[in-house]
Design goal:
- The chain has about 80 residues and is of the alpha+beta class.
- It has three helices and three strands, in the order βαβαβα.
- It has one domain.
- The protein has a three-stranded antiparallel β-sheet with strand order 1-3-2, with helices on one face.
- The protein is globular.
- This is DUF2007 domain-containing protein.
Length: about 80
C-alpha cells in the first residue's frame, strides 16, 4: 500500500496518452502506483477564482490537466527507468 509516508513522486505528466503508457509499463513491471489528476483551472482553497482573473485567452488547454504519479520509495529508481 502506498501512503504519504512511503511514496515518491515521478515527474508530472501533461499528456494523457503518456500517462496511460507509463501506467501500463508500471503494471507490467509489477510496480504499485497511484495517479492524482489535477485541474489547473479549478479554484482551490488557496487560489480563489484563478480562472476568472486569468481568463482562458491564449491558454494552452492541453496543459489544463496534469497527472502526478506516485510509487513506493523503494520502487522509484525502477519507475524512473520506465519514463
Amino acid at each position: 500500500m502506498i501512503s504519504i509516508f512511503n511514496r515518491a513522486q515521478l515527474p508530472p505528466l501533461f499528456d494523457p496518452a503518456r500517462r496511460d503508457s507509463l501506467c501500463q509499463a508500471l503494471d507490467q513491471a509489477g510496480i504499485e502506483y497511484t495517479v492524482k489528476t489535477v485541474d489547473r483551472s479549478s479554484p482551490s482553497a488557496l487560489n480563489f477564482g484563478s480562472r476568472e482573473r486569468g481568463g482562458t485567452l491564449l491558454h494552452q488547454m492541453e496543459q489544463n490537466w496534469y497527472y502526478l504519479v506516485y510509487v513506493k520509495k523503494s520502487d522509484w529508481e525502477a519507475a524512473q527507468r520506465l519514463l
